[in-house]
Amino acid sequence: MRPLIATIRLDNLRHNYQVARAAHGDRTLAVLKANAYGHGAVRCAQALADIADGFAVACLEEALELRAAGIAHPILLLEGVFEAEELKAVDEHQLWLAVTSEEQLRMIEQSAPQKPFNVWLMLDSGMHREGFLPEAYHAAWRRLEASGKAGTITKMTHFARADEPELPMTAAQLERFDAVVRGLPPGDESVANSAGILCHPRAQRNWGRVGIALYGVTPLPAGFEDAADLRPVMRFCSRVFGVRELAAGEPIGYGDNFVTDRPTRVGLVACGYADGYPRRASSGSPVLIDGQRSRLIGRVSMDMLTVDLTDLPETGIGSEVELWGDVVSVNEVAAHAGTIGYEPLCNVKRAHFDYR
Ligand SMILES: *Cc1c(COP(=O)(O)O)cnc(C)c1O
């Protein structure tokens, strides 16, 4: 068997959910979109079933996968529906849905649900990706109410820069949100993603929406790392399956990415970009080999990558390589690839998933 294994520690997932829920201080949706950020949505939902207030996914397909697995919790469609036809399944499966645009609002008005929808009406408080602008929000609310198609309407917004806690933008978004929803009938509010939950106390509202922190990965910059006791859920590991000694001045792998600067013992590892390891990760990206830190050297191939074993004489064929997990954080690897931890997590594939 190819030795690439994503070990998923479900006890850590439960722990992180409880940390986030306690930090938020009220009900919190566990965000399971993109196959639970690569961790396996059904298994994660099942592991959280007795403690989670509900789940959130990106789209109907993801919600139906959870329903088919017997998950009866509230499930919010964070992007709502893409076409009116989907509203039948939303109704049938009692899903909650975001309404983020005029088009979606019209679909709701023209629908004929058995039971009024549970709608989360998105305010664009400054991110400018989706949602109703402040001047249009009240009208959208009134139309939903008048349609009789919405039972509960939760007021919702999303932060653009909550992961940069020193910036004033999140406070400004919150201020705009509060100013707009004032004057509407009381009801539930939901504004905070992981970063909002972890470092913006004023974002504590009726419903948190925790994504990345659930998986034990901080969305915050270095320095804020210890703010919450998050435990990595995924440990993504492979093994060394080839070793060679190269003289100084020899290239490794495709292109001219890396040339040895000393006599070098190179380990060949069964993991590549087809498995989700970022191809753009530069030489020097951290890896852990039999418990000791070393580095990626040379360009990442489709099925393999190469690491530096020179200073680890006791390592060799069969040595375990932690690509990310408990010592090497996925954020560190991502930083060496010009991305954020979310992306390599979502991309993990072809690995054997070992649920613990
Ligand atoms: C993905 C998403 C979240 C979760 O974000 P994290 O940064 O992963 O916590 C929350 N709200 C919305 C609307 C989202 O799309």
TrEMBL record:
Active site: 33, 254
GO function term, MF aspect, one: alanine racemase activity
GO biological process: D-alanine biosynthetic process
A GO CC term assigned to this protein in UniProt: cytosol
EC assignment: 5.1.1.1
Alanine racemase C-terminal domain segment(s): 233-356
Catalysed reaction, written as an equation: L-alanine = D-alanine
Keyword Membrane: no
SUPFAM superfamilies: Alanine racemase C-terminal domain-like (SSF50621), PLP-binding barrel (SSF51419)
Keyword terms: Isomerase, Pyridoxal phosphate
Highest rank taxon of the organism: Bacteria
Needed cofactors: pyridoxal 5'-phosphate
Listed pathway(s): Amino-acid biosynthesis; D-alanine biosynthesis; D-alanine from L-alanine: step 1/1
Biological role: Catalyzes the interconversion of L-alanine and D-alanine. May also act on other amino acids.
Name assigned to this protein: Alanine racemase
Organism: Chromobacterium sinusclupearum
Organism classification: Bacteria, Pseudomonadati, Pseudomonadota, Betaproteobacteria, Neisseriales
